[in-house]
Amino acid sequence: MSSSGEWPLWEVFVRSRRGLSHTHAGSIHAADATMALRNARDVYTRRGEGSSIWVVPASAITASSPDEKDPFFDPAADKVYRHPTFYDIPDEVRNL
Amino acid sequence: MDPTEALEEHFRRTVEGEQRIEPRDWMPDAYRATLVRQIAQHAHSEIIGMQPEGNWITRAPSLRRKAILMAKVQDEAGHGLYLYAAAETLGTSRDQLLDLLHRGRQKYSSIFNYPTLTWADVGAIGWLVDGAAITNQIPLCRCSYGPYARAMTRICKEESFHQRQGFELLHTLSHGTAAQLAMAQDAVNRWWWPSLMMFGPPDAESAHGARSAAWRIKRHSNDELRQRFVDMTVPQSEVLGVSLPDPELRWNAERGHYDFGALDWEEFRAVVRGDGPCNRQRLAHRVAAHEEGAWVREAALAYAEKRRREPAA
Ligand SMILES: [Fe+2]
Ligand SMILES: [Fe+2]
């Protein structure tokens, strides 16, 4: 089969148990969404690792550049006042 | 500093700082090529490795053993899929990798070119071959390339059942009738040396060792890992009550390790070259499975396409 006939790529996200968010597990190939879910179940949850699965066409994901030096994340770098440790509170104050 | 130098410097510092490289990061071309080759070879080994054991599924001696063996072979398929997915993050397609395997342009582990002659071979493979694979794979969980390291973590978790079921199988045989013990011993005799060869050529002849170490892809040398495996396995063989086929094998108190005899590297090179007992059979079987499955892949795509055009009422 030529590479143009390759099944599309899907990214797989698994919720391991109730109360946790879905986490990226890996990817699989499948012809459609139903098959993608079944393949994801067989590949990534053979030992009860999941209580819920999302599959997303890999082509539908828009990603930022992963390089942490990327200026994309600069706006967060100089706003120390977003962290609780930025504030001076008298020592005797409790529960704050 | 020119831009490439700055990128190289950033890459080097990331790797040396024990940070992971992720798919969209800049990386040297040679790092990418090395990883594709290594991960693909690893993935191919997982799926070709289904054949020697798959050979015994229909003849497993009990329903319990049959269910275990099916689960193990299915796991190996899963391992292949995790690894192909990791290789694809480096910009190659699954079809390309399979095509390279089918044309003999990429290798798989030589161990799978040996035949499984008796039921005891299933035990010897689990104990020795999976055992050697685990020894090789545990350090790869900390490999510098994120997707490979994550795939390896998942694989290592699953491998421990593979080794234990093999040990249990052999233990049952070696504590059974005299004929069963002889069968277990024969399997161990045949699989011992090829298992030691799974760690690759001696360090002095290993082609890319130093560079892979600098890139934090490989963390221990072939000889180091081989020694580690021998040291772990000899005491296990005593519990099994089988001997290992090496007259030079003995504890060396001074080194704190077992000494062992020289490996037959001529045999190793012959099997890598394609002249092992089952090379042609393994590849022919793989290619046939792929070609005979083509209509299924095409039909599934055609069905998905049809559904897209006319959604169900
Ligand atoms: Fe495996
Ligand atoms: Fe395994």
Layout of secondary structure:
The complex is a heterodimer of chains A (96) and B (313).
Chain A: E1 9-15, E2 23-29, H1 33-44, E3 52-57, H2 74-77
Antiparallel strand pairs in A: 1-2, 1-3
Chain B: H1 3-16, H2 29-48, H3 50-54, H4 63-88, H5 94-102, H6 120-137, H7 146-174, H8 178-197, H9 209-214, H10 222-240, E1 250-252, E2 257-259, H11 265-275, H12 279-292, H13 294-309
Antiparallel strand pairs in B: 1-2
Residues 76, 130, 159, 162 of chain B line the site of one fe (ii) ion.
Description of the molecule:
The complex is a heterodimer of chains A (96) and B (313). By secondary structure, chain A is an alpha+beta fold. Chain A has a domain at 1-62: Phenylacetic acid degradation B (Ubiquitin-like (UB roll)). Helix content of chain A is 17%, strand content 21%. Chain A is built from 2 helices and 3 strands; from the N terminus they run ββαβα. Chain A has a 3-stranded antiparallel β-sheet, with helices on one face. In chain A, a hairpin with a 7-residue loop joins strand 1 (9-15) and strand 2 (23-29). Chain B contains 13 helices and 2 strands; from the N terminus they run ααααααααααββααα. Chain B has helices spanning 3-16, 29-48, 50-54, 63-88, 94-102, 120-137, 146-174, 178-197, 209-214, 222-240, 265-275, 279-292, 294-309, and strands at 250-252, 257-259. In chain B, strands 1-2 form a two-stranded antiparallel sheet. In chain B, strand 1 and strand 2 (257-259) form a beta hairpin. The N and C termini of chain B lie far apart (62 Å). The mean pLDDT of chain B is 95. The structure holds fe (ii) ion (2 copies). Residues 76, 130, 159, 162 of chain B line the site of one fe (ii) ion (FE2). The site of one fe (ii) ion has 4 residues of chain B, from helix 7.
